[in-house]
Write a structure and sequence with these properties.
By secondary structure, this protein is mostly helical. It is about 75% helix and about 0% strand. α6 packs antiparallel against α11, α8 runs antiparallel to α11 and α13 runs parallel beside α15. The chain starts with 10 loop residues before the first helix and ends in an 8-residue tail after the last helix.
Length: about 450
Amino acid sequence: MPSQASSPTYATAKGFCITSAFWMMVATFMGLLGATELIAPDLLENVGWLVFGRVRPIHINLVLFGFVTPGLLGAAFYYLPRLLRTDLYSEKLGVITVLIWNLSLVSTVVSLSAGYSQGREYAEMIWPVDMLVVVMFLLVLYNLIMTVRQRREPVLYVSVWYACAAIVLTSATYCLGNVIWRPNTGALVGIPDAILLWFYGHNIFGLLLTPLALGVTYYVIPKACKAPIYSHTLSLIGFWSLLVVYTHIGTHHLLQAPVPTWLKVISIVDSVGMVIPVMVVLINIWYTAKGRLGEIHADVGAKFVFTGTIMYFFVSIQGSMMALPQVQRVTHFNNWVVGHAHVGVLGFSGMIALGGLYYVLPKLAGKPLFSKFLADFQYWMVLIGVSGFTIVLTIAGLIQGNAWLNGETVYRVLPEVHLYYVLRASLGLMIFTSALLGFYNIIRTLYFNTGEFSS
């Protein structure tokens, strides 16, 4: 890759990397706390700001906007200028964006823990916090678009497409899903609100985390393998088919609700049709890595990313299957769905976010990774943790779903799933510990490491 016109500081990329590592600790701690409260519901019953109903939305929003998205953006703010053969349009604007981003996360924790919530899944934040989120996405969008505009590389590699599309589309869907034109409620009324919420709720994964994660994947895997991407044509087919197909699948969360039948049919058909963009991407990536798994194994960042692509396969096949009404009769509203969400967010986009961090970190710092052993140890802890989540929560979900299908009441099933809740919390402790180690490793790499790195 040709050198830049000037020596870049990568202040924005570093800021997002640190943001991701820090909020991963907080997010996983909140997840561990929530899992513990499911084992002992009266543990913190007199501490209002730590009851389960407040801890859960804090955990979810911090994972989405505190850990995964900043981690993917940290990698994007490194690779985009290099792919475009130019400097980032404004590092100062980028740093301001990082500060606003962290302000919105602090505001999220404070407001939700104080009980101020709009009570809509993935859209719990109150209107002032929503406005901060909108501002930070618009700032990221402006910085990226202006960087693309001043590029010296005429060909836009697919990672640029994915990163820019993620920010453009999320800037719009966030405003729609959070109903920002109604500050007092942040919601519509009845079924239209449910439809709009799940249009947003699923697209926050499919049009934010997925494109950002695939952008990182398309950059890291060819670089680590020292080989060109298998097919640029397939990369663009995967890009456009993702945008066309994924947009309509959110209503499969509402198959038991009085939503128009035609909308349900579209959501089911497109959910099954998601196999097309998923397999196009995976064939492209896996054929790029064919015969070069040794290079991927040697690079801890690439190893995280490649594992994330495997998780992408599993979560997507599972998602297509779960959209079928006969399957939903057993899997909906129970821990099966929670396990599915963990595979998607932590296993797919989370692993790729960590891989992107570890791949670009030595290049940002100009030094080798402080401890490859700690990074590798974190890899195995996250992999064991998310695999364990999948198994444990799937079993618990099947127990719950089949019991409810046979007419059993909710509370009588709780003793049967208690053991699985204990295992879930134990795995959560492993994930939280890995977040602590990762933060330590990243900070030492950036600021307290005397080694030298040559790219």
